[in-house]
Amino acid sequence: MRLFSQSVVTILCACAAVFTLAGCSSIGKGMAKAVMAKAEEKPAPEKSLCEITGPEFAGLSAGFETASEKPKTLRLIIVHGIGEHQPGYSLRLQENVAARLGLNIVEPVPKTIAMQTPTDSKALPGADVGTLRISRYTNDKGNELLTFEVTWSALFDADRKAVAFDDYGLHSGARADINQSLKKLINSFTEPLAYHGPKGELARNSVIQALCWSARGTWNDYPADGKLSCNPRDTQKAVIERDTFAISTHSLGSRMAIDGLMALGNTRDAYARDPKSRAGFEAMELLRDKQITFFMLANQLPLLQVGQAPPAIVGKSAQYCGPGAARVRERLFRHLSIIAFSDPNDVLSYRIPETFVRDNLDSRLCAEATNVSIAVANTVSIPGVSFASPEVAHTAYEDNERVLSLMALGLAESSPPPGCSWLKSRPNQ
Questions:
Q1: Within 10 A of 169 (CB to CB), how many other CB atoms are there?
Q2: Interatomic CA distance for residues 279 and 230, integer angstroms
Q3: In whole numbers, what is the pLDDT of the chain averaged over residues?
Q4: What is the pTM assigned to this prediction?
Protein backbone atom coordinates (compact mmCIF):
# COMPACT_ATOMS: atom_id res chain seq x y z
CA MET A 1 0.00 0.00 0.00
CA ARG A 2 3.04 2.30 -0.03
CA LEU A 3 2.20 2.81 -3.69
CA PHE A 4 -0.57 5.14 -2.53
CA SER A 5 2.00 7.49 -1.05
CA GLN A 6 4.32 7.23 -4.05
CA SER A 7 1.48 8.19 -6.38
CA VAL A 8 0.37 11.01 -4.15
CA VAL A 9 3.85 12.50 -3.85
CA THR A 10 4.14 12.57 -7.64
CA ILE A 11 0.74 14.22 -8.04
CA LEU A 12 1.48 16.77 -5.34
CA CYS A 13 4.76 17.57 -7.00
CA ALA A 14 2.87 18.27 -10.19
CA CYS A 15 0.47 20.53 -8.30
CA ALA A 16 3.35 22.30 -6.63
CA ALA A 17 4.86 22.99 -10.04
CA VAL A 18 1.91 25.25 -10.85
CA PHE A 19 2.92 27.52 -7.97
CA THR A 20 6.70 27.27 -8.21
CA LEU A 21 7.29 26.96 -11.99
CA ALA A 22 10.13 24.64 -11.02
CA GLY A 23 8.63 21.16 -11.45
CA CYS A 24 9.25 18.79 -8.58
CA SER A 25 12.66 20.17 -7.79
CA SER A 26 13.61 22.23 -4.74
CA ILE A 27 10.59 24.23 -3.50
CA GLY A 28 8.00 22.14 -5.34
CA LYS A 29 9.31 18.86 -3.97
CA GLY A 30 9.66 20.38 -0.50
CA MET A 31 6.05 21.50 -0.58
CA ALA A 32 4.89 18.03 -1.59
CA LYS A 33 6.87 16.36 1.17
CA ALA A 34 5.60 18.84 3.75
CA VAL A 35 2.01 18.17 2.74
CA MET A 36 2.59 14.40 2.93
CA ALA A 37 4.16 14.69 6.38
CA LYS A 38 1.17 16.70 7.59
CA ALA A 39 -1.26 14.24 5.98
CA GLU A 40 0.28 11.34 7.89
CA GLU A 41 -0.39 12.97 11.26
CA LYS A 42 -3.33 11.67 13.27
CA PRO A 43 -6.51 13.75 12.85
CA ALA A 44 -7.75 15.69 15.88
CA PRO A 45 -10.73 13.69 17.25
CA GLU A 46 -12.72 16.78 18.22
CA LYS A 47 -12.41 18.29 14.74
CA SER A 48 -12.58 15.28 12.42
CA LEU A 49 -15.47 13.32 10.98
CA CYS A 50 -17.14 10.55 12.96
CA GLU A 51 -20.74 9.84 11.95
CA ILE A 52 -22.46 6.61 12.97
CA THR A 53 -25.69 5.41 11.37
CA GLY A 54 -27.54 2.26 12.34
CA PRO A 55 -28.57 0.15 15.33
CA GLU A 56 -26.54 -0.30 18.49
CA PHE A 57 -24.10 -3.19 18.72
CA ALA A 58 -22.14 -5.07 21.34
CA GLY A 59 -18.43 -4.45 21.74
CA LEU A 60 -15.80 -7.08 22.42
CA SER A 61 -15.98 -6.32 26.15
CA ALA A 62 -19.53 -7.71 26.23
CA GLY A 63 -18.00 -11.18 26.25
CA PHE A 64 -16.62 -10.48 29.73
CA GLU A 65 -19.78 -8.91 31.16
CA THR A 66 -22.01 -11.94 31.71
CA ALA A 67 -23.50 -12.73 35.10
CA SER A 68 -21.24 -15.72 35.68
CA GLU A 69 -18.20 -15.16 37.89
CA LYS A 70 -16.20 -17.80 36.04
CA PRO A 71 -13.34 -16.66 33.73
CA LYS A 72 -14.59 -15.94 30.22
CA THR A 73 -13.09 -16.42 26.76
CA LEU A 74 -13.46 -14.16 23.74
CA ARG A 75 -12.44 -15.61 20.35
CA LEU A 76 -11.56 -13.07 17.65
CA ILE A 77 -10.96 -14.10 14.02
CA ILE A 78 -8.83 -11.61 12.03
CA VAL A 79 -8.56 -11.53 8.21
CA HIS A 80 -6.32 -9.16 6.23
CA GLY A 81 -7.04 -7.35 2.96
CA ILE A 82 -5.22 -6.84 -0.34
CA GLY A 83 -1.45 -6.94 -0.62
CA GLU A 84 1.28 -9.24 0.60
CA HIS A 85 1.10 -10.03 4.34
CA GLN A 86 3.13 -12.10 6.75
CA PRO A 87 1.85 -13.88 9.90
CA GLY A 88 1.81 -11.39 12.75
CA TYR A 89 0.52 -8.51 10.60
CA SER A 90 -2.30 -7.79 13.08
CA LEU A 91 -0.15 -7.64 16.20
CA ARG A 92 -0.70 -3.91 16.67
CA LEU A 93 -4.47 -4.29 16.47
CA GLN A 94 -4.41 -7.24 18.87
CA GLU A 95 -2.34 -5.38 21.45
CA ASN A 96 -4.51 -2.26 21.26
CA VAL A 97 -7.71 -4.28 21.67
CA ALA A 98 -6.25 -6.35 24.51
CA ALA A 99 -5.21 -3.21 26.37
CA ARG A 100 -8.72 -1.77 26.16
CA LEU A 101 -10.14 -5.04 27.45
CA GLY A 102 -7.86 -5.00 30.50
CA LEU A 103 -5.83 -8.00 29.35
CA ASN A 104 -2.22 -7.34 30.32
CA ILE A 105 -0.63 -10.82 30.05
CA VAL A 106 0.36 -12.41 26.74
CA GLU A 107 1.59 -15.88 25.90
CA PRO A 108 5.13 -15.30 24.58
CA VAL A 109 4.95 -17.83 21.74
CA PRO A 110 1.91 -17.93 19.42
CA LYS A 111 0.81 -21.16 17.78
CA THR A 112 1.09 -21.40 14.00
CA ILE A 113 -0.89 -23.81 11.84
CA ALA A 114 -0.48 -24.32 8.10
CA MET A 115 -4.16 -24.79 7.27
CA GLN A 116 -5.43 -27.46 4.91
CA THR A 117 -8.93 -28.46 3.93
CA PRO A 118 -10.03 -31.88 5.25
CA THR A 119 -8.89 -34.82 3.14
CA ASP A 120 -12.49 -36.02 2.92
CA SER A 121 -13.65 -32.71 1.42
CA LYS A 122 -15.46 -33.38 -1.86
CA ALA A 123 -14.62 -29.97 -3.37
CA LEU A 124 -11.04 -29.31 -2.17
CA PRO A 125 -9.50 -32.34 -0.44
CA GLY A 126 -6.23 -31.60 1.35
CA ALA A 127 -5.73 -28.15 -0.21
CA ASP A 128 -3.35 -25.60 1.36
CA VAL A 129 -5.39 -22.53 2.31
CA GLY A 130 -3.09 -20.26 4.31
CA THR A 131 -1.65 -19.78 7.77
CA LEU A 132 -3.45 -19.49 11.10
CA ARG A 133 -1.61 -17.75 13.96
CA ILE A 134 -3.24 -18.22 17.37
CA SER A 135 -2.34 -15.84 20.22
CA ARG A 136 -3.55 -15.57 23.81
CA TYR A 137 -4.04 -12.52 26.07
CA THR A 138 -5.21 -12.87 29.68
CA ASN A 139 -5.44 -11.04 33.00
CA ASP A 140 -5.32 -11.96 36.69
CA LYS A 141 -9.06 -12.70 36.68
CA GLY A 142 -8.55 -15.49 34.17
CA ASN A 143 -10.44 -13.77 31.35
CA GLU A 144 -8.80 -14.39 27.99
CA LEU A 145 -8.76 -13.25 24.39
CA LEU A 146 -7.80 -15.84 21.80
CA THR A 147 -7.01 -14.37 18.38
CA PHE A 148 -7.09 -16.44 15.19
CA GLU A 149 -5.17 -14.47 12.59
CA VAL A 150 -5.64 -15.68 9.00
CA THR A 151 -2.90 -15.03 6.42
CA TRP A 152 -4.11 -15.93 2.92
CA SER A 153 -1.99 -13.66 0.70
CA ALA A 154 0.38 -16.45 -0.44
CA LEU A 155 -2.57 -18.00 -2.30
CA PHE A 156 -2.36 -15.09 -4.76
CA ASP A 157 1.42 -14.77 -5.17
CA ALA A 158 1.30 -16.01 -8.76
CA ASP A 159 -1.50 -13.57 -9.61
CA ARG A 160 0.49 -10.61 -8.30
CA LYS A 161 3.52 -11.70 -10.29
CA ALA A 162 1.44 -12.04 -13.47
CA VAL A 163 1.38 -8.25 -13.91
CA ALA A 164 4.60 -7.38 -12.09
CA PHE A 165 6.48 -7.23 -15.43
CA ASP A 166 4.53 -4.08 -16.27
CA ASP A 167 6.39 -2.12 -13.58
CA TYR A 168 9.63 -2.48 -15.56
CA GLY A 169 10.88 -2.52 -19.14
CA LEU A 170 9.98 -0.51 -22.24
CA HIS A 171 6.50 0.73 -21.30
CA SER A 172 7.57 1.59 -17.80
CA GLY A 173 10.37 3.82 -19.03
CA ALA A 174 8.12 5.53 -21.57
CA ARG A 175 5.36 6.51 -19.14
CA ALA A 176 5.00 9.94 -17.63
CA ASP A 177 5.81 10.04 -13.92
CA ILE A 178 2.23 10.43 -12.69
CA ASN A 179 0.95 7.73 -15.06
CA GLN A 180 3.70 5.34 -13.96
CA SER A 181 2.78 5.81 -10.32
CA LEU A 182 -0.92 5.32 -11.04
CA LYS A 183 -0.20 2.21 -13.13
CA LYS A 184 1.73 0.68 -10.23
CA LEU A 185 -1.24 1.42 -8.01
CA ILE A 186 -3.65 -0.31 -10.40
CA ASN A 187 -1.30 -3.28 -10.81
CA SER A 188 -1.40 -3.85 -7.05
CA PHE A 189 -5.12 -4.71 -7.15
CA THR A 190 -4.84 -8.21 -8.57
CA GLU A 191 -6.38 -10.10 -5.63
CA PRO A 192 -9.95 -8.75 -6.00
CA LEU A 193 -9.91 -9.87 -9.64
CA ALA A 194 -8.39 -13.25 -8.87
CA TYR A 195 -10.77 -13.77 -5.95
CA HIS A 196 -13.71 -14.14 -8.33
CA GLY A 197 -11.88 -16.95 -10.11
CA PRO A 198 -10.85 -20.44 -8.91
CA LYS A 199 -8.53 -19.02 -6.22
CA GLY A 200 -11.56 -17.57 -4.46
CA GLU A 201 -12.61 -21.00 -3.22
CA LEU A 202 -9.23 -21.45 -1.55
CA ALA A 203 -9.48 -18.03 0.10
CA ARG A 204 -13.00 -18.69 1.38
CA ASN A 205 -11.84 -21.99 2.80
CA SER A 206 -9.07 -20.22 4.71
CA VAL A 207 -11.81 -18.34 6.59
CA ILE A 208 -13.94 -21.47 7.01
CA GLN A 209 -10.95 -23.31 8.45
CA ALA A 210 -10.28 -20.44 10.87
CA LEU A 211 -13.91 -20.52 12.01
CA CYS A 212 -13.59 -24.24 12.65
CA TRP A 213 -10.30 -23.91 14.55
CA SER A 214 -11.71 -21.09 16.68
CA ALA A 215 -14.23 -23.53 18.17
CA ARG A 216 -11.92 -26.50 18.53
CA GLY A 217 -10.87 -26.18 22.16
CA THR A 218 -8.95 -24.31 24.84
CA TRP A 219 -5.52 -22.75 24.39
CA ASN A 220 -3.84 -25.93 25.62
CA ASP A 221 -5.77 -28.02 23.11
CA TYR A 222 -4.18 -26.30 20.12
CA PRO A 223 -0.98 -27.77 18.64
CA ALA A 224 2.13 -25.57 18.62
CA ASP A 225 2.51 -25.95 14.86
CA GLY A 226 1.92 -28.32 11.95
CA LYS A 227 0.13 -28.72 8.63
CA LEU A 228 -3.39 -29.59 9.75
CA SER A 229 -7.07 -29.40 8.91
CA CYS A 230 -10.17 -28.85 11.04
CA ASN A 231 -13.49 -30.58 10.53
CA PRO A 232 -16.68 -29.26 12.19
CA ARG A 233 -17.00 -32.60 13.96
CA ASP A 234 -13.72 -31.71 15.74
CA THR A 235 -15.24 -28.65 17.40
CA GLN A 236 -16.33 -28.64 21.03
CA LYS A 237 -19.97 -27.98 21.78
CA ALA A 238 -19.12 -26.46 25.16
CA VAL A 239 -16.84 -23.90 23.48
CA ILE A 240 -19.53 -22.83 21.02
CA GLU A 241 -22.21 -22.57 23.69
CA ARG A 242 -20.07 -20.82 26.32
CA ASP A 243 -17.65 -18.47 24.57
CA THR A 244 -18.09 -15.23 22.64
CA PHE A 245 -17.08 -15.07 18.96
CA ALA A 246 -16.24 -12.00 16.88
CA ILE A 247 -14.62 -11.19 13.53
CA SER A 248 -12.38 -8.31 12.39
CA THR A 249 -11.51 -7.95 8.72
CA HIS A 250 -9.89 -5.44 6.36
CA SER A 251 -10.98 -4.55 2.80
CA LEU A 252 -11.06 -7.74 0.65
CA GLY A 253 -10.95 -9.84 3.83
CA SER A 254 -14.50 -8.68 4.57
CA ARG A 255 -15.78 -10.20 1.33
CA MET A 256 -13.94 -13.45 2.01
CA ALA A 257 -15.30 -13.70 5.54
CA ILE A 258 -18.90 -12.90 4.66
CA ASP A 259 -18.75 -15.43 1.81
CA GLY A 260 -17.34 -17.98 4.24
CA LEU A 261 -20.21 -17.36 6.66
CA MET A 262 -22.80 -17.69 3.91
CA ALA A 263 -21.19 -20.96 2.78
CA LEU A 264 -21.99 -22.42 6.21
CA GLY A 265 -25.61 -22.79 5.12
CA ASN A 266 -24.75 -25.23 2.32
CA THR A 267 -22.32 -27.09 4.58
CA ARG A 268 -24.93 -27.50 7.29
CA ASP A 269 -27.52 -28.71 4.78
CA ALA A 270 -25.04 -31.28 3.44
CA TYR A 271 -24.28 -32.52 6.95
CA ALA A 272 -27.99 -32.84 7.68
CA ARG A 273 -28.29 -35.31 4.79
CA ASP A 274 -25.25 -37.37 5.80
CA PRO A 275 -25.62 -39.65 8.87
CA LYS A 276 -21.81 -39.83 9.16
CA SER A 277 -21.65 -36.06 9.69
CA ARG A 278 -24.01 -35.94 12.64
CA ALA A 279 -21.41 -34.45 15.00
CA GLY A 280 -20.58 -31.68 12.54
CA PHE A 281 -24.25 -30.93 12.01
CA GLU A 282 -24.91 -30.67 15.75
CA ALA A 283 -21.96 -28.28 16.17
CA MET A 284 -23.25 -26.01 13.41
CA GLU A 285 -26.74 -26.12 14.88
CA LEU A 286 -25.36 -24.51 18.03
CA LEU A 287 -24.38 -21.44 16.00
CA ARG A 288 -28.08 -20.78 15.50
CA ASP A 289 -28.25 -19.20 18.95
CA LYS A 290 -25.00 -17.22 18.72
CA GLN A 291 -24.72 -13.46 18.32
CA ILE A 292 -21.65 -12.52 16.27
CA THR A 293 -20.12 -9.05 16.00
CA PHE A 294 -18.31 -8.45 12.70
CA PHE A 295 -16.02 -5.41 12.36
CA MET A 296 -15.24 -4.51 8.74
CA LEU A 297 -12.37 -2.03 8.46
CA ALA A 298 -12.10 -0.22 5.09
CA ASN A 299 -15.25 -2.03 4.00
CA GLN A 300 -15.48 -3.00 0.31
CA LEU A 301 -18.61 -5.18 0.16
CA PRO A 302 -20.55 -2.99 -2.33
CA LEU A 303 -17.60 -2.81 -4.74
CA LEU A 304 -16.86 -6.54 -4.61
CA GLN A 305 -20.54 -7.45 -5.09
CA VAL A 306 -20.54 -5.87 -8.56
CA GLY A 307 -21.12 -8.53 -11.21
CA GLN A 308 -21.86 -11.25 -8.65
CA ALA A 309 -25.17 -13.07 -8.30
CA PRO A 310 -26.89 -12.70 -4.92
CA PRO A 311 -27.36 -15.76 -2.69
CA ALA A 312 -30.38 -17.99 -3.25
CA ILE A 313 -32.11 -16.76 -0.08
CA VAL A 314 -32.40 -12.96 0.17
CA GLY A 315 -35.06 -10.51 1.30
CA LYS A 316 -36.62 -13.03 3.69
CA SER A 317 -35.11 -12.18 7.08
CA ALA A 318 -38.56 -11.95 8.67
CA GLN A 319 -38.99 -15.68 8.02
CA TYR A 320 -35.77 -16.64 9.83
CA CYS A 321 -34.91 -13.93 12.36
CA GLY A 322 -36.42 -12.54 15.50
CA PRO A 323 -38.98 -13.86 17.99
CA GLY A 324 -41.71 -15.92 16.41
CA ALA A 325 -40.05 -16.29 13.00
CA ALA A 326 -41.62 -19.23 11.16
CA ARG A 327 -38.29 -20.75 10.04
CA VAL A 328 -36.16 -19.80 13.01
CA ARG A 329 -34.60 -23.26 13.23
CA GLU A 330 -33.07 -22.76 9.77
CA ARG A 331 -31.20 -19.56 10.60
CA LEU A 332 -27.39 -19.59 10.72
CA PHE A 333 -26.99 -17.13 13.62
CA ARG A 334 -29.28 -15.46 16.09
CA HIS A 335 -27.83 -12.13 14.99
CA LEU A 336 -24.86 -11.01 12.88
CA SER A 337 -24.05 -7.40 13.71
CA ILE A 338 -21.92 -5.84 10.93
CA ILE A 339 -20.04 -2.63 11.75
CA ALA A 340 -18.68 -1.14 8.51
CA PHE A 341 -15.91 1.43 9.03
CA SER A 342 -14.94 3.66 6.12
CA ASP A 343 -13.00 6.90 5.70
CA PRO A 344 -14.53 9.04 2.91
CA ASN A 345 -10.98 9.83 1.77
CA ASP A 346 -10.23 6.15 1.19
CA VAL A 347 -10.73 5.65 -2.56
CA LEU A 348 -11.22 1.90 -1.99
CA SER A 349 -13.86 1.66 0.74
CA TYR A 350 -17.62 2.18 0.90
CA ARG A 351 -20.56 2.49 3.23
CA ILE A 352 -23.11 -0.32 3.20
CA PRO A 353 -26.32 1.01 1.64
CA GLU A 354 -29.60 0.37 3.44
CA THR A 355 -30.72 -2.19 0.87
CA PHE A 356 -27.42 -4.08 0.56
CA VAL A 357 -27.97 -6.46 3.46
CA ARG A 358 -31.51 -7.25 2.29
CA ASP A 359 -30.59 -7.82 -1.37
CA ASN A 360 -27.08 -9.32 -1.21
CA LEU A 361 -26.62 -11.26 2.03
CA ASP A 362 -28.17 -14.62 2.88
CA SER A 363 -31.26 -13.92 4.97
CA ARG A 364 -30.34 -16.80 7.30
CA LEU A 365 -27.38 -14.78 8.60
CA CYS A 366 -29.89 -12.49 10.38
CA ALA A 367 -27.53 -9.61 9.62
CA GLU A 368 -27.85 -5.90 10.31
CA ALA A 369 -25.34 -3.19 9.43
CA THR A 370 -24.13 -0.10 11.26
CA ASN A 371 -22.05 2.35 9.21
CA VAL A 372 -19.22 4.31 10.80
CA SER A 373 -17.96 7.11 8.55
CA ILE A 374 -14.78 8.20 10.27
CA ALA A 375 -11.69 10.21 9.38
CA VAL A 376 -8.65 8.10 10.23
CA ALA A 377 -6.53 10.22 7.86
CA ASN A 378 -5.70 13.87 8.44
CA THR A 379 -6.97 16.37 5.84
CA VAL A 380 -4.48 19.05 4.78
CA SER A 381 -5.42 22.22 2.94
CA ILE A 382 -3.09 23.97 0.50
CA PRO A 383 -4.01 26.92 -1.73
CA GLY A 384 -6.95 25.90 -3.87
CA VAL A 385 -7.13 22.24 -2.81
CA SER A 386 -7.48 19.90 0.18
CA PHE A 387 -5.76 16.53 0.48
CA ALA A 388 -5.80 13.40 2.65
CA SER A 389 -3.51 10.43 2.15
CA PRO A 390 -5.48 7.55 0.54
CA GLU A 391 -3.00 5.10 2.05
CA VAL A 392 -3.53 6.37 5.58
CA ALA A 393 -7.29 6.53 5.00
CA HIS A 394 -7.23 2.86 3.98
CA THR A 395 -4.95 1.47 6.68
CA ALA A 396 -4.86 3.60 9.85
CA TYR A 397 -7.74 2.01 11.75
CA GLU A 398 -5.71 -0.05 14.21
CA ASP A 399 -4.35 3.06 15.99
CA ASN A 400 -7.45 5.24 15.83
CA GLU A 401 -8.77 5.80 19.33
CA ARG A 402 -12.42 6.09 18.33
CA VAL A 403 -12.29 2.95 16.18
CA LEU A 404 -10.71 1.02 19.03
CA SER A 405 -13.26 2.38 21.49
CA LEU A 406 -16.15 1.23 19.28
CA MET A 407 -14.59 -2.19 18.84
CA ALA A 408 -13.94 -2.67 22.54
CA LEU A 409 -17.00 -1.03 24.09
CA GLY A 410 -19.59 -1.18 21.33
CA LEU A 411 -22.38 1.30 20.96
CA ALA A 412 -25.16 1.37 23.51
CA GLU A 413 -27.85 3.88 24.33
CA SER A 414 -26.46 7.45 24.08
CA SER A 415 -22.81 6.45 24.30
CA PRO A 416 -20.92 7.21 21.09
CA PRO A 417 -17.22 8.07 21.52
CA PRO A 418 -16.33 11.75 22.06
CA GLY A 419 -16.63 13.71 18.84
CA CYS A 420 -18.93 11.15 17.19
CA SER A 421 -22.57 11.63 16.25
CA TRP A 422 -25.03 8.76 16.11
CA LEU A 423 -28.17 8.56 13.99
CA LYS A 424 -29.74 5.52 15.60
CA SER A 425 -32.06 3.20 13.73
CA ARG A 426 -34.37 0.63 15.22
CA PRO A 427 -33.18 -2.98 14.88
CA ASN A 428 -35.03 -5.08 12.32
CA GLN A 429 -35.24 -8.07 14.65
A1: 9
A2: 13
A3: 87
A4: 0.89
